[in-house]
Specification:
6-stranded antiparallel sheet; 43 strands
């Protein structure tokens, strides 16, 4: 009887809610149907599964509201976009995309006529962080759709990044916690370009992927994510090494790196995982399956000395008011040449760093322990990254210049230069040093992409929303707020940091940062001709945003820009409407006459209109001019892949 009564109450409540919402929204029902038609005609291209899933959410008391929101609304919270609640499981070889939309609270929503650009932007953003379950074990030949492959371009381009974010049990993780997916483009004779792709078989993947059923079930939370199933409370399986960040070729070994564990060695021909590469350095396991020393995913090559340089930090230092960095330098055979340890009295989160001829240079991103959020994070109720918050207690950014060799004049190099402003470094382009005034002064010049602390958010990197588990474009494109001045809320821009230190005492004579005058737009993933690393360079190549998409004004970026120093001109190549670009790689021309820009710029173009990926080759000398495009190679739609982080070119 009680059950029957409860069912009747629920039915009456559903009827009442439906009646109210139908009364409120009835003038918009016809507009909603017209919107679907306009979206199809505009090139958005609802697939059969998408149309079916979109209509499926109409059932239930919130059906009309959910469907209308899916097509027409922005949230009045920090995001300007709607939320996605789940990701459908796709067949092998098909990118997994958002399918179902759940409405935010009615208090947070303003219903309006749909803006097609906003809808496109939202779904394009979901596509760039989709999942590709299929591997391409046998290389497939790609079609050159524009131009011709240069005859002197022989070798392989490797791209590392997450391949899978959604499992088969309702969980979606941050791209930073997605399983590593290594892509390879091999350039042979003539126009022969072959493509292959494999998952890095890490220990975490072996636990979470069933080879027999070809199904996934995430077991590890990962530092940036939260699972929707399984053992959440007290789940200490946090740090899963997904080997998804960068790729290194050294000493005859091809390695995939991740910011928090040992590199994994991969066969350079077949991309088959060989196993962990423990020869790099001895790493001991600590709490939460975290290594005692975590290898930073960015490495540097000392071209002059032919050395590989890597830096590690102690895992526990991120939650302590100190930081321990250890630099390892290896010769061409992975023989350890030297090891230097530095203890800094600062709580830092470091992703990238830079090398000069005599120093390791670290611009520290200052963080602090968030005690309140730590309790929920440790209990498994929020991602572990929530233990930390950006530290805005000082008005400067610390720049450490740590000596690679003998300390000069007993100077305390652990005392940083204080660069004005709260600047969060994403990636470095280059750094150099020179001795001035008869050896009495050393000048450091550092070029890097820096954002403001106000713009950067630790707990929503790339727009991952662990509460609703969708990708929120607003998190990476929030550049306007009535609370802050424009300078306090800027996305990454190219900056030049200059520091003069005395070679006679501990005094710092100059410490300043200035934005590149020719790069007043979102900029990241800067690269240079590697032969100029550690010295003075004239040209920097980076991904930039043209600003043509108002709702995606910062990320993803849609152009490759060649910067002629901080005061020179900027020349760009635009990928096109509803396209994005990934990190560029500069490849020196084999027949080079010695010019710094005599080479090619290679990168991946992500096209959302036709849902394809293209490998693009530009003539570095002609970027911004007619004839810059040398060749464009198409990856078939069934092999389309999500956004890659960092790549590597290796000559044959």
């Amino acid at each position: 009887m009680l059950k029957d009564l409860a069912r009747r109450i629920v039915s009456i409540a559903n009827f009442a809610v439906c009646t109210v919402f139908s009364f409120i929204l009835s003038p918009r029902v016809q507009a909603k149907s017209q919107t679907l038609s306009r979206l199809k005609a505009s090139g958005y291209g609802f697939g059969a599964r998408e149309t079916k899933s979109a209509r499926a959410v109409m059932s239930g008391p919130f059906g009309l509201l959910a469907t209308t929101l899916a097509e027409t609304t922005r949230s009045s919270t920090s995001s300007r976009f709607i939320g996605v609640s789940s990701f459908a499981t796709a067949p092998q070889g098909v990118m997994t995309l958002p399918r179902t939309v759940s409405p935010p609270s009615s208090k947070e929503v303003t219903i309006r006529e749909p803006a097609i650009e906003d809808v496109h932007a939202f779904w394009d953003y979901q596509r760039i962080f989709g999942s590709q379950r299929a591997e391409v074990k046998d290389p497939v030949r790609l079609k050159v759709v524009e131009g011709r492959i240069p005859s002197d371009l022989k070798g392989s381009y490797y791209l590392c990044g997450p391949g899978l974010r959604a499992d088969d049990h309702g969980s979606c993780v941050s791209p930073l916690d997605g399983h590593g997916y290594l892509r390879k483009f091999h350039f042979g004779n003539g126009d022969l370009v072959q493509y292959s792709a494999r998952y890095v078989r890490t220990e975490a993947m072996k636990e979470e992927f069933d080879e027999e059923s070809r199904s996934w079930k995430f077991q590890y939370r990962g530092p940036f994510s939260l699972l929707r199933h399984g053992h959440r409370i007290g789940n200490f399986k946090v740090m899963k090494n997904v080997a998804n960040t960068s790729v290194l070729k050294w000493g005859g070994k091809l390695l995939c790196l991740w910011e928090g564990g040992e590199p994994y060695e991969v066969d350079e021909d077949t991309l088959e995982t060989i196993g962990t590469f423990r020869a790099l350095l001895p790493i001991l396991t600590g709490g939460f399956n975290m290594p005692k020393e975590r290898v930073l995913a960015h490495f540097k090559i000392d071209e002059r000395r032919q050395r590989l340089v890597v830096i590690t930090s102690n895992a526990e230092d991120m939650v302590l008011p100190k930081a321990t960095f250890t630099a390892y330098e290896f010769d061409a055979d992975f023989k350890l040449i030297q090891r230097k340890e530095f203890l800094l009295n600062d709580q830092l989160m470091v992703h990238d760093w830079v090398l000069t001829d005599e120093h390791y240079v670290i611009l520290g991103n200052r963080v602090t322990l968030d005690v309140g959020s730590s309790l929920t994070a440790m209990a498994g109720l929020s991602p572990m990254i929530n233990c930390l918050a950006v530290d805005e207690s000082t008005t400067y950014s610390p720049l450490y210049m740590l000596p690679r060799f003998d300390e000069r004049n007993g100077r305390d190099w652990t005392v940083p230069a204080k660069i004005p402003g709260q600047l969060w470094v994403t990636h470095f382009a280059n750094a150099s040093e020179e001795t001035l005034e008869g050896g009495h002064k050393i000048r450091f010049v550092v070029d890097a992409c820096l954002s403001s602390y106000k713009w950067f958010s630790l707990n929503s990197i790339f727009g991952y929303k662990w509460q609703e588990q969708h990708m929120d474009p607003g998190c990476m494109n929030n550049t306007s707020s009535s609370k802050f001045m424009p300078e306090q809320l800027h996305s990454p821009r190219m900056h030049r940091v200059t520091v003069d230190v005395s070679n006679l005492d501990d005094s710092i004579l100059l410490q300043k940062s200035e934005r590149f005058k020719n790069a007043n737009f979102a900029t990241d993933f800067p690269v240079i001709n590697s032969t100029a690393s550690g010295g003075k360079n004239e040209f920097t190549y980076a991904t930039t945003n043209s600003g043509r998409r108002k709702t995606l004004s910062s990320f993803p970026m849609d152009s490759i820009t060649k910067l002629h120093g901080p005061s020179g001109r900027a020349s760009s190549w635009w990928a096109g409407k509803r396209c994005a670009v990934g990190e560029p790689q500069f490849v020196k021309r084999k027949s080079s006459q010695g010019g710094e820009d005599d080479g090619y710029v290679i990168f991946v173009q992500y096209s959302f209109v036709d849902e394809r990926r293209y490998l693009v080759i530009l003539d570095a000398r002609r970027i911004g001019a007619r004839g810059a495009l040398v060749a464009k190679v198409e990856v078939p739609r069934e092999y389309s892949f999500p956004f890659g982080f960092h790549g590597l070119w290796q000559d044959s």
